[in-house]
Amino acid sequence: MKLSPPVEVSQDKLSIDVSEIEPLLRAPSLDSKPWPEAYLPLKDGTTLYIREAKREETDAMVAYMKRVMDVKHDFYNIVGARVCAEILGWYTQRLKDPYLLVGLIDGLWVGLANGRVMHEKINISHHTLALTRGARIGAAMYYVKAYYAFEILGAEEFWSTPESYNGWLRYIVGMAQQCYSWPEHQHELGGGRIYYVTRKYWQTNARNYLAQMLGHELCFDMPDEIRDANQNFRVPEELTV
Fold this sequence. Notes:
By secondary structure, the chain is α+β, with helices and mostly antiparallel strands.
């Protein structure tokens, strides 16, 4: 858009450094507390190591999610596309206060949980994804994400919306999550219904449900051998979704 200046000007062209534009395009950060590394013993005898993703792992994660986009059953194609965009949004800092957590077993990437902080009271879940079958990785990563929201960030509410029938049954029905009226309230992930967990409900019901499903609590006192076993990030060679 252009308009002629209403007065005489001494310069009709101005230059601006992109570093001066960036603060206007990037949402100001709340400087949220980071996720501390943790581990969770799984029922199959393996140990899930959970940490924040690293920027240098972006290309490998995006390449894997592009493969997920080709899987047409159980909505994995749309999940893959959205997660790919969310990883890139996190990497390019075009999401407000995002978090991206990865679950590893001996360095192999087996789980993802991501979302963002709307503000101090509301935490928005985006996706929870298991990259392997049979070890309840999805339940573990959903538990990690909710734990992060309530126990570390101090959120008052945790908002989710499922894309698949399995996610709806296990986490919405299984946790008896309540739903805000729709369409007055819509989740930012496609305008779906907002299912929510309050802090009180987390403390009295939801946390216990997930912990019982997994059989163990998160551990934050990290042994060197677990950290060392997960130093080298690897993506799965085959899709098992």
